[in-house]
Write a structure and sequence with these properties.
The protein has about 130 residues and is an alpha+beta fold. The protein has two domains: about 70 residues, Signal recognition particle alu RNA binding heterodimer, srp9/1 (2-Layer Sandwich); about 55 residues, Signal recognition particle alu RNA binding heterodimer, srp9/1. It is built from two helices and eight strands; from the N terminus they run E-H-E-E-E-E-H-E-E-E.
């Protein structure tokens, strides 16, 4: 499944509430950075704990937007990426390896607390892809 993923600088919660109102949408999920299990590999500053780690808003019968507060400067990366949800680790790894060639890895494709594999990469054409294998 492919969904647009919107990236924000500390304004995701406000933006998604606004989009929810605009579309009479249904907030399917919203997680904050403070909801994550503590990890020395991904420390969260006290000021960042209320930022949105992941939000999902249903805006039409079959249409969704996803979003989060990005913890890096977005000036060179844009605010939209393509979220690809796959059920095959092999397909994800194949696509990942191709897209990262001459690209920039933002987060290595790796197991997380919410997915078998998850990662983000900007390809050589400047398009950012987010992979999730459930």
């Amino acid at each position: 499944m492919i969904k647009p993923y919107l990236m924000f600088n500390r304004e995701c919660d406000e933006a998604f509430k606004w989009y929810q109102k605009a579309f009479d949408g249904e907030m399917v999920a919203i997680q904050k950075y403070g909801d994550m299990p503590p990890s020395p590999d991904f420390p969260v500053a006290e000021d960042d704990k209320n930022l949105v780690l992941h939000a999902e808003l249903k805006i039409t019968e079959t249409g969704y937007i996803l979003g989060s507060d990005y913890r890096q400067d977005l000036q060179n990366d844009g605010k939209v990426c393509i979220s690809v949800e796959l059920n095959s680790e092999e397909r994800a790894i194949k696509a990942w390896n191709l897209l990262k060639d001459n690209g920039t890895v933002h987060m290595d494709l790796q197991p997380t607390f919410f997915a078998k594999l998850h990662g983000s990469v900007k390809d050589k054409f400047g398009v950012t892809w987010m992979f999730t294998v459930r």
